[in-house]
Amino acid sequence: MKNKYQFISIILFFSVLQPNMVLGQDRNNSIKLSLKPKECVVYKEGDMCYATVRAKWSADLPASFCLFRTPGDVKLECWENVNEGQFVEELVMDEPMSFYLTSANSSEILIRETINLSWVHKKSSRPAMEAAP
Q1: Are the beta carbons of 62 and 84 closer than 8 angstroms?
Q2: Helix (H, G, I), strand (E, B) or coil at 22
Q3: Residue among 98, 77, 74 nearest 88 (CA)
Q4: Cα separation, 94 vs 113, whole angstroms
Q5: Which three-class secondary structure state does DSSP give residue 72?
Q6: Parallel, antiparallel, or unpaired for β 32-36 and 49-70?
Q7: Taking Cα atoms as reference points, which of 118, 117, 112 lies closest to residue 70?
Q8: Distances from the Cα of 103 to the Cαs of 24, 61, 72, in angstroms?
């Protein structure tokens, strides 16, 4: 008889736990983040890139989210109990930058996208020639 009650207790425990685990997995799989532009192009390697970055995100389920930018893990904006959001920022970059979304009450990264930096001409390894007088 004792084993029967233990079995029922275990079944009840997992029946309560399982929907929460599925909900968390579904939320992670249903979040989208898009950045425009996806790439910042400069004339030559080493130049600074100036861009207006637009981040848009959406989720199937409303929740509280925060948007961050790296390097530096800079918190840009947080939203409460919504399933979409957007953010616009003027940036000056000399390296790739990533944007990521977290749950507002956790530091776990739910989704990440990166703006890559590219150039038309590679930086020359030759020293610059001096102009003749």
Answers
A1: no
A2: helix
A3: 77
A4: 17
A5: coil
A6: antiparallel
A7: 112
A8: 11, 12, 18
Q: Give the residue from 60, 58, 61 showing the smallest Cα distance to 86.
A: 58
User: Which tokens go with 65?
Assistant: 């989210």
**30-54 pLDDT, tens per residue?**
899 999 999 998 888 888 999 999 9
pLDDT digit string, tens, across residues 72-90? 899 999 999 999 999 999 9
Cα 15 from Cα 31, distance rounded (Å): 26
Return all residues near 63 (Cβ < 8 A) that are at least 6 apart.
Answer: 27, 81, 82, 83, 103, 104
CA distance 16 to 75: 34
H or E segment and range at residue 40? strand 39-44
